[in-house]
Write a structure and sequence with these properties.
The chain has 243 residues and is mostly beta strands. It has three helices and 15 strands.
Length: 243
């Protein structure tokens, strides 16, 4: 299995919820999984909706003459953190907010080795996102992916954290260390977006999709990689401070 760089976006795979069909009444299967109460499902759904409403305004679409991607509002100055491969060699960009408003932006700095970049836009500034301590992420955590796949602004999907601390070669001599593996599928337009936990905190930036060599190097379903939030905060703080 190899990994490919996505031009930009995040679509997450669905995490299945097991629902039992039997009871513990006489003749029932005592090993059956209990039915999930409707109230619990409603509560989880409301939590998802709340996270999306809180985080979506902090996720933007980034357009260059050659590419389309996503980014996350990082601070109150209009700095946006995204993938370096989304920025490419461009110096000017158009940032579109979740509201549909568009603003011009310029590059602040890039760290190609970590595939991260910061751009700065002028105009209305939405609230910056909150970043989690990614060292506390656990395998099995639910996560929501918010981004702009294929130009579909503010799209949301759901998945889980599949593994942490992965080392993944990105190509061009770059290997990303300590990345998060997720069931979120990475599609063009999603790179640079937000992978968030159920508290609405960014845990990573979706960046790569795995390719299956046995299937003609087509995308391997349910295997994507995100740069962990601790790395994002460290690099973006340094880049924003130098700009």
């Amino acid at each position: 299995m190899s990994a490919r760089r996505a031009p930009a976006l995040v679509l997450a795979g669905l995490a299945a919820v097991a629902v039992g069909c039997g009871g513990n009444h006489a003749g029932g299967d005592p090993t059956a999984v209990p039915v999930v109460p409707a109230s619990a499902m409603t509560s989880l759904q409301q939590q998802f909706v709340g996270v999306v409403k809180a985080v979506s305004p902090s996720v933007v679409q980034i357009r260059t003459p050659l590419a389309l991607g996503s980014g996350i509002v990082f601070d109150d100055r209009g700095d946006v953190v995204t993938n370096a491969h989304v920025v490419g060699n461009a110096t000017r960009f158009v940032v579109t907010l979740a509201s549909g408003e568009s603003h011009p932006a310029t590059v602040v700095g890039k760290d190609v080795g970590n595939d991260l970049a910061v751009i700065r836009f002028t105009g209305g500034h939405p609230s910056p996102a909150t970043f989690a301590n990614s060292s506390r992420i656990e395998v099995g955590d639910l996560a929501l992916a918010i981004g702009n796949p294929l130009g579909l602004r503010s799209s949301v999907t759901e998945g889980i954290v599949s593994a942490v601390g992965r080392s993944v070669p990105e190509g061009n001599g770059v290997t990303l260390s300590s990345v998060i593996q997720t069931s979120a599928a990475i599609n063009p337009g999603n790179s640079g977006g937000a992978l968030v936990d159920l508290s609405g905190r960014v845990i990573g930036i979706p960046t790569l999709a795995a390719l299956d060599p046995e299937m003609g190097s087509s995308p391997a379903p349910g295997i994507g990689f995100a740069i962990d939030s601790n790395t994002v905060r460290k690099v973006a703080t340094a880049l924003a401070g130098s700009g």
